[in-house]
Amino acid sequence: MPLYTSQPLKIYNSLSGEKEDFKPIHEGNVGMYVCGPTVYSNVHLGNVRTFMSFDVIFRYFLHLDYKVRYVRNITDVGHIVDDVDEGEDKIAKKARLEQLEPMEVVQRYTVDFHDILKSFNFLPPSIEPTATGHIIEQIEIIKKIMATGIGYEANGSVYFDVVKYNETNNYGILSGRNIEDMLANTRDLDGQSDKRNPQDFALWKKAEPEHIMRWPSPWSDGFPGWHLECTAMSTKYLGNHFDIHGGGMDLKFPHHECEIAQNEACTGQSPVNYWMHANMLTLNGKKMAKSTGNNILPGEILSGDNHILSKPFSASVTRFFMLQAHYRSILDFSDDAIVAAEKGYKRLMEAVEALPNIVAGKTSSIDFEAWKQLCYDAMNDDFNTPILIAQLFEAVRFINLLKDGKETISAEDLESFKTAVNAFVFDVLGLSDEKSADADNDKLEGVVNMLIGMRNQARADKNFALSDQIRDQLIALGIQLKDGKEGTSFSIQ
């Protein structure tokens, strides 16, 4: 029997504002779409927290034996600056400032995104589609929306008529906003816009002559609206009606609200059963912002190259820190908080490492099955990772008591206990044991230092061909040597 049959799951649905029993559309299968990054800059820490939340959700569904199709897109068209319909495209702006082709910008920051997520031990999604790879699908959706009379063309651009849509639907169903209030609080455009109503949003924008990223369409050479890409990619790979749509809290309005409107206008049905939103990350009690200097990139945490933290912290410690807060809670990142998390992480790993050495007895003096169910209860309650971590520290206490001979465990319970601890620590939370990674790093360092010694001897013997060969082969492996007054050091690129 699949594990999900015995572990009923509740999910907080942003659409209803309540926790609801999770019932997939197709039994044993989960379709989940999460809004990915716009690749015009390095992925920031808040993004990492959001994607980590859905990585754990993905992991837990897999642990429960669901078959999961997890779709997370790459926005490589580049939506408008400040996420409105007027202004300069984010990727095009970056390309202009750095004198690059837009796709060079896209490639650079897509690689950075993947590298950072890999370092934090994320599972890759099932499908990672790009917006530029789905222009045809987006144009077809626009045609369908225009056929309903809700989409309209003006001077080569196409807009979604929010007021007309709201006559038969509810624009604001997700965010709780009222369209009359929105219209009343919007400044008068004084006839400067092609929109019929200030709240209308772009489905297609006509490209200005200087705009590089453009595609032909029935209306103009232009580019799709930001909201449209997710509608196109989610429905293509998950169908017009799927289980879960996730993203950051900041995307609830207007992005996800507009997605619902587009889907309903196009297909006549609500696209998603459960809307999930991860909350924001602050730094030292304040909003993170480059302009104020209150900002840190994920890679800067790992390298220690920053003015915020007292020392470098590993990816696993950072991951453990983030999962100590529920995904719907605001999390404040600070030096004190991550130092405390590092201590907790080490305690947990020491206990996990001691577990294989526990000797079984004839009987168990602790109810380990009850403990295991409490772990499931935590995750079944809207993926409550802080409660799960609290239960794992209860397991740490059990392990220490067993080590000291103050409690006993039967052979059968010991195997079940080991399996559960490893499953929750490594498979569900996605933590890594740094000591094994450190051991591998020590071996690598030893091998490289041996080669540096051989190179130094070759240079002393004036065998420069061998010296250069060692250096060049290390460079080919991504290991850069640096000769200095105090000898030769190396860095891994």
UniProtKB/TrEMBL annotation:
<comment type="subunit">
    <text>Monomer.</text>
</comment>
<dbReference type="InterPro" id="IPR024909">
    <property type="entry name" value="Cys-tRNA/MSH_ligase"/>
</dbReference>
<keyword id="KW-0862">Zinc</keyword>
<feature type="binding site">
    <location>
        <position position="290"/>
    </location>
    <ligand>
        <name>ATP</name>
    </ligand>
</feature>
<keyword id="KW-0479">Metal-binding</keyword>
<dbReference type="GO" id="GO:0004817">
    <property type="term" value="F:cysteine-tRNA ligase activity"/>
</dbReference>
<protein>
    <recommendedName>
        <fullName>Cysteine--tRNA ligase</fullName>
        <ecNumber>6.1.1.16</ecNumber>
    </recommendedName>
</protein>
<dbReference type="GO" id="GO:0008270">
    <property type="term" value="F:zinc ion binding"/>
</dbReference>
<keyword id="KW-0030">Aminoacyl-tRNA synthetase</keyword>
<keyword id="KW-0436">Ligase</keyword>
<dbReference type="InterPro" id="IPR032678">
    <property type="entry name" value="tRNA-synt_1_cat_dom"/>
</dbReference>
<feature type="binding site">
    <location>
        <position position="230"/>
    </location>
    <ligand>
        <name>Zn(2+)</name>
    </ligand>
</feature>
<keyword id="KW-0067">ATP-binding</keyword>
<keyword id="KW-0648">Protein biosynthesis</keyword>
<feature type="binding site">
    <location>
        <position position="35"/>
    </location>
    <ligand>
        <name>Zn(2+)</name>
    </ligand>
</feature>
<dbReference type="InterPro" id="IPR014729">
    <property type="entry name" value="Rossmann-like_a/b/a_fold"/>
</dbReference>
<dbReference type="GO" id="GO:0005829">
    <property type="term" value="C:cytosol"/>
</dbReference>
<dbReference type="InterPro" id="IPR015273">
    <property type="entry name" value="Cys-tRNA-synt_Ia_DALR"/>
</dbReference>
<dbReference type="InterPro" id="IPR009080">
    <property type="entry name" value="tRNAsynth_Ia_anticodon-bd"/>
</dbReference>
<dbReference type="Pfam" id="PF01406">
    <property type="entry name" value="tRNA-synt_1e"/>
</dbReference>
<comment type="similarity">
    <text>Belongs to the class-I aminoacyl-tRNA synthetase family.</text>
</comment>
<keyword id="KW-0547">Nucleotide-binding</keyword>
<dbReference type="InterPro" id="IPR015803">
    <property type="entry name" value="Cys-tRNA-ligase"/>
</dbReference>
<dbReference type="Pfam" id="PF09190">
    <property type="entry name" value="DALR_2"/>
</dbReference>
<feature type="binding site">
    <location>
        <position position="255"/>
    </location>
    <ligand>
        <name>Zn(2+)</name>
    </ligand>
</feature>
<feature type="domain" description="Cysteinyl-tRNA synthetase class Ia DALR">
    <location>
        <begin position="374"/>
        <end position="437"/>
    </location>
</feature>
<feature type="binding site">
    <location>
        <position position="259"/>
    </location>
    <ligand>
        <name>Zn(2+)</name>
    </ligand>
</feature>
<keyword id="KW-0963">Cytoplasm</keyword>
<dbReference type="GO" id="GO:0006423">
    <property type="term" value="P:cysteinyl-tRNA aminoacylation"/>
</dbReference>
<feature type="short sequence motif" description="'KMSKS' region">
    <location>
        <begin position="287"/>
        <end position="291"/>
    </location>
</feature>
<feature type="short sequence motif" description="'HIGH' region">
    <location>
        <begin position="37"/>
        <end position="47"/>
    </location>
</feature>
<dbReference type="GO" id="GO:0005524">
    <property type="term" value="F:ATP binding"/>
</dbReference>
